Fold this protein.
Amino acid sequence: MKTFSKSSKLDDVCYDIRGPVLDEAKRMESAGQEILKLNIGNPAPFGFEAPEELVRQISENLTRAEGYIDSKGLLASREAVASYSSKSGIRNVNIEDIFIGNGVSELIVMAMQGLLNEGDEVLIPAPDYPLWTAAVVLAGGTPVHYICDEQSDWQPDISDIRKKVSSRTKGIVVINPNNPTGAVYSGEVLDRIVEVAERNELIIFSDEIYDRILYDEARHISIASLTKNVPCVTLNGLSKSHLITGYRVGWMIFSGNLPGARSYIEGVNMLASMRLCSNVPAQYAVAVALQNDETIRRHTSADGRLKKQRDLGYERLKRIPGLSCTKPHGAFYFFPRIDTKMFGIKDDEKLTLDLLKKERVLVVQGTGFNWFEPDHFRIVFLPEMSLLQRAFDALEHFLKDYRQR
C-alpha cells in the first residue's frame, strides 16, 4: 500500500509541551500509573473554577449561539475588547480591526499566515512560547530568535534584537508577561523595542494572555500603548485570567499606524471568513469577564493561592543543589536553570523523560521553548500546596544521584 508521509512543512516544527515525553506519560497512565502533569498551564485539573457569572452568561445565551455570526465576532464582544484596550492605553481602536478567535493560538497562526511570504523573517524571543516559532515556519517564514537575558530577570536583550534585524524582517514578537519565564517587561525595555520597530518599520506582535496574572505589585504595560507610528497586533483572551482554557475565546487587535497594513488586515479578514466564525457561546462571556477580574486578583494577591504556590515553589527550587531560578512576576511557570556539568546533561529531553519514568512527574525541557542550551526546564505551579510539595520532593530526590548517561 502507498505510504503517506507528513508534510515537509512540519519538518522544522515542534510543540514539545505536548510532544514525545507527553506521549510516554500517556502510555504510563494507560498502564495504571499516576502522573503529576506539570507540563501545561491548564488550571481546571488543579481545582481552579471559572467565575460563576461567566458560566451563567454562556449557559443563558446558548439558544442565541446556534448559528454563524460575523467572522470577526459578536459586536458586543468586540466593543468590550475595544473598551478594555482603551483602558490599557491603546489608542483609537476600531472595532472593525478586532478579531475574536478560538483562543489566542488560532489567532497567532492566522496572523502569520496572513502576513508572511517565503523567507520573510520574524524576530521571536528565546525562550519563547513555541507556537510562535511553529506558526512562522508553517506560514513559510523564517523565525529569528533574540535573547532574553536571564541575568536581567529575563528582559529582552535590546542589543541582540538590533543585531538580528535584516532587510527581510517583517515583525517582532513580544510575549509579556512571558511564557515560560514569568518575566514582566519594564517600560524602559518596551520603549527600546518600540524604537527598534519604528526605526526599521516593523510590525509589533504582542502576546499578552497573562496580562492580569501578576505578583509582587508588578505592572503590565501594553506595548501598543507606547506607539502610534507602526502597526501593532495585540493578542489576549480569557483562557488564563478567567480560568476557562477549554472555552477557547481570545482576540486580536490591530492598532497604531495602519494605513500601510490595510492589505494585511484584508488578508487576515479573508482567513477569518474562511473559518466562518469562532466558537460563539464563549463570546457571550467576553463583556462580563472584562468588567470583572476579581477571581484572578484574589488568586494572585498576597494571600492568594497562586501567589502562595509561586512562593513555595521558588523557595523549594532555590534549595535544590544544582538548580537556580529567577523569580517569576507573572503567569504560572518557573523556568529554572540546571547545572549541566554537575549532572552531565547533554540532552534535556532525556532529562525530562528520565524524571517522568523515575518519579512520574511531567515537565517540559527548555529546548522545547527554543532555548539554545539544554540547561533549563519549565514547571507549572498550578497544583495546590500539598501536590506541589510532592512534586518538588520528587524532583529533589531524582536529582540527588542523577547523572545522565
In short: Residues 122 and 325 are 29 Å apart (CA to CA).
